[in-house]
Amino acid sequence: MPAPARNPDAPFGEAHGAALTGAFAPVFGEEVLENLSVEGEIPADLNGVYLRNGPNPRFAPNGRYHPFDGDGMLHAAHFDRGKLVYRNRWIRTDAWQAEDRQGSSPYWGIMNSLKVRTDLPMKDTGNTDVIVHAGKAVASWYLAGEPWLLDPVTLETLGKAPWTRPPGGGFSAHPKVDARTGELMFFDYGTEHPFMWYGVVSAAGELVHHVPIELPGARLPHDMAITEHYSILHDLPVYADPEAERAGRHKIRFDASLPARFGVIPRHGSPAELRWFAFSPCFVYHVVNAWEEGEEIVMIACRYLPARNAQGGIDEQRTAHMIATLMMDARLWRYRMNLRTGATHEECLDEAHNVEFPTINAARWGQRSQHAWLVDHDPDRLRWTGLRAYDTDTGSCTGAWSDGHAHCWYSEPGFGPARAPRAEDHGYVTCFVWNAATRSQQLQVFDARELSRGPVARIHLPHRIPAGFHACWFNTENTA
Ligand SMILES: [Fe+2]
User: Fold this and answer.
1) pLDDT the model gives residue 251
2) Are the CB atoms for 49 and 478 separated by under 8 Å?
3) Architecture of the CATH domain 17-475
């Protein structure tokens, strides 16, 4: 007798909650789709691949599920002279391969286990971030797992990148690539002293620098930044609750008595050369960009607004709960750090909008940039309701679009430069959009300078693409 068809909105049933049902429900096919129906016109001068990573568990989870637990799956939109091919494939991590052999999952999620436990092994899913380095896609995991290399067009898993080094032995999500030198900068973090490591991979793919970074204790940083000569590492007052750790569980604490600190280290510098700059306590999931201005380092980021209690003070428990459940209440923020005087300055660029998951023209990472594209965030859950463009010099919103804030699920956008770009923002913004009201899935393409005009092309996909995490752009114009 054939197995009953799975409910596509809840393939593992309803027991695992919102993170595995509806827009987050995984898909099980790996497809190559061409000749899709298009409204408008796919720009002929947009050539490259929009890559998006995200959780897509293949087997029913054990215990409590968190989106960081789902097997990483890449969804790719390959634009080539006005034509579009969509592909999706799981990342063949060690865990994926073990599950493939077993036909079920022996792993436990981050809420049930710890990275160091062997009795409840935690799955390193590679599901969080994707960037491109030396012509290959690099997928990485939030909790500093192993970096996986994939073909950015076919999505074939090519293997593990040999860039990790004990004692930390990990590679966090959000490495950064300097387009001018081809170098990749990354960090690793863990629960053992010195709690963080920093590394540089050459354009040829060799680990050329790896140094310990001492933090005051175990922390849960999420991102980093680069400038032309420096890397910026994060020491934020967010860490795993020690009591929960002793009980073998993962629970986050936000400690408002500690500052947020950013450590500036020369790109190939020693730990002794690192300088810390202290700011108001907060959490930062994502950096927009950073660069040098004379003797100052400038960093633009999405700063979490700590939750407030009835008396106006910081509500640590509520803030920790929001961080743990990816409920974001973030504002665009500018940090300045003076390398000569040690002076610091921070300011909110736009109080009006809760924006996150930033994208810029990746050729500008580490250099002064002016334009960023972000998602509007639903403050009550992990859902992105539209797109928003900013001039980060002035903090002014220069464009916005949504097919419906109440029922649409946008993904982190990609920025694809036009062929022979004439300016930083000369190009296109691409995005997957699930409309839950009409139950329709589109890939949308915008003129990056005219977001408010709506998509120049809407490509109709035959089924939903699960909500996910990070995205990037692989530029075939420069690599063909
Ligand atoms: Fe992230």
Assistant:
1) 85
2) no
3) 7 Propeller (2.130)
